[in-house]
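Predict fold of site-specific DNA-methyltransferase (adenine-specific); 571 aa.
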Amino acid sequence: MDKKTYLELRKTEFNSIELKILDTLRGEGRTDDYLVNEIAIALLAILVKEVNDYSQLSELIQVRFEEPVKMFLDRVANKYEELITETSKSSDNNILRAIISFAGNPGDKGRAEDSTPDGISQLCIKLLEIDENDTVLDMGSGTGTFLTQVYMETDCKELKGVEINTNSFLVSKLRSSVLDNRFELKLGNAISENYLPLEANKVFSNMPLGMRLPNLRNSLNSNDELNKFFENSKRTVSGDWIFSIAAFLNTVQPGKTVSIMANGGMWNKPDEGLRKELIEQGLIEGIIQLPERLLSSTGIPVTILIMSQGNDEIRMVDASKYATKGRRQNTLENRDVKNILNAYHTDTDISKSVSVDEIAANEYILNPNRYMEVEVEIENGISLGDLCLSINRGAMVKSKDLDNMVSKTSTQYHYLMLQNIKDSLIDAELPNLKDIGYRLSKYCIQDKNLIISKISPFKIATAKVKDGERILANGNLYFVEIDESKVNPTYVEVFLQSEAGMLQLNKYAKGAAMRSISIQDLKRIQIPDIPRKEQDKIADEYTLLTDQLIVMQKQIDLVRDKKMRLMEEVL
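Predicted 3D structure, encoded as tokens:
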């Protein structure tokens, strides 16, 4: 089937025939099998017209297809002979080809989890800059929608795909058959296996979002080259990075890799070390932040990651407002794609190139809006100033005076500095002081005070002050007393640590080499006014996760101590 015929098929109405097929399939087997069985029945209905007798269908399958496709088609042919015969008689080939090509594509009855929406595919194809000499590989090719669109929009040399889900693999193989087998498809694991022998220099990846390192560890351990990036990673590192780097490592260089990722991997703390390594190696070319509700499988906003070699700056595009809104799902229409591409290649109010030094100063955060002069919209927001009883700055103590105050023995007096805050937690052991005189007592923090660093990159934590203990805050810190009758203090902490909170802190921060925020500007930060019940739920979950993190850190310290003492009994 040529491209012109394929485009004409898009206009073909096939719902009535499809419903008849699905009526038979419903209640038989798993719902996950409906799509692949539907497409198989449509294809077999076409093949029936080529044979004189249904008994000859199996022989035709053996000639036309390879394993595991022919085994699957044989099974469907034996199980649904009556339905296939009836469908063949009642439907012309164009309707059947339309079912094979478009059933279950994005937007179709919620059966599109393994498909890439047309608008995203179109944008990624342009970002890959595919020409007639390129071999394109889809890592996680799903039901073949991206490869089909590449075939329709480019004249690339070869199209290849790797898919781990058997049903999706079979769907894409059946679809490729009506396109004269334009795709070379492999059933395999995108993480554990090496696909460089496929010689693809343009690689795309739209893999499952939100997976974590422990879920992928077994596959990762089978790939030494990929595993090097994650040997020292935290357990909470984003699985999205594993899939994206796997795609890059399977790209023949010089080449280009484009991946779809959740936004969290661009800014969260567990991924900072990984982002740093990739950025310093010059492997990240660009970041495009997209709107929410573009994928059928999730409503979260996503990011396009563009990887290549030799990048000393990164192209940032905040395209979070560029989409055509739908009732259930948003889409990228031609005009949206055109605007985003223009922003990627030309500086606009939503795009710019950012140096590695500037990104390093922002904890290697890759959210484009972190580097744009954008307005942060908080619906139903209440200013932090209206939720506080007080905001105070820590004491400006000269180094000489502080040296005289430091105690070498344990006391009830302590000193809190910026470096004592790590992963939103305050060190359990703080520097000891001999005493805190009356003059400095007003700079002492209280239990449950919210601690916010004055300078960027901003750190947020909640103080825990024991009975009889006194903690003097450093001048680079603010300590905030939240009015608990108005808001849950932990909820405020969680929000300020989020990317939306950090965006506001950075928006109001001033300065060049060292950016800092004033108390007046801190008061202007908007906190979303959600029901107290929802605030408490978020706070409880955060507290539980924080407790787990503390336990894990203690376990790490214990293991490190045991490692250091291994030889003590021998020596």
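The chain has three domains: 3-102, 118-371, 381-532.
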